[in-house]
Model the fold of this input.
Amino acid sequence: MPELPEVETIKHGLKPHLERAVVQDVIVRRATLRWPIPDNLKDLLVNQCILDISRRGKYLLFKFITGTLLIHLGMSGRLQLVSTRQPLKPHDHVDFIFSSDKVLRYNDPRRFGAILWTHAPIEDFPLLKSLGVEPLDHEFTADYLKQKACNRHADIKSFIMNSHVVVGVGNIYAAEALFLAKIHPLTPAGHLSHDQLITLVDAVQKTLQAAIRAGGTTLKDFVNSQGTPGYFSQQLNVYGREQLPCVQCGSLLLKIKQAQRTTVFCQQCQI
DNA sequence: ACATTGACCTGGGAGC
DNA sequence: TGCTCCCAGGTCAATG
Done:
């Protein structure tokens, strides 16, 4: 479900409600997500105060004195603030209870998500350690991409979706950014000119920032922490628009498969 | 070291 | 109506 803008939207929605809140109870109804949820999660969290909520890639990080809770939403995860009176729905796997009318509820039909805990400094956590740069940080530059892409034969779309290169760019925003940059998605990453890389960095950042401003993209079921959808789908130029006219030139958009993921692009505009 | 593939899961829609 | 097949916003592990 979520790419960087969706996770950022959720983080933004949770911060004012949960920072400095104290966990009263934790209920795990189903502990088998992508990895097992720690079986002592309740002991780790009860009576502990959330000091800070941040994001690294698509991971939400809840900082406590004793360590950090990491939540990844996978493809279908949701985090919503609800009341204890809210009836349970299918796939409501975990509740973090703060008060009778403040429950952080994790729902995930496909269970590709993860809820993990680490006592260690977050930069030492294995899953985060090898992640690439944040796309909205100043280290995400054409020079950085050039150095990473050197001698790479992977196509540029798979390359910018590779979290060891840059985090947070999933299938929707990779396609949108390449359209904005007028770059053909099958171009080998190492073949892009310096000017193209400058354009690409700018396009990724503009796309993500616009999506964050719109509250993320709701294709079918994304909702933020308050239960409202995102509106960036109205601004999608290529994703989900195969066989429809390009907004720039009017020719029909083409759908291909890259690394088992669908890519839609314009053969005329993207060279 | 890099590129490719399979794996993990459920639900919804298309087609028969 | 019901079956089968394919598709979906992610990403790690195993394989060449």
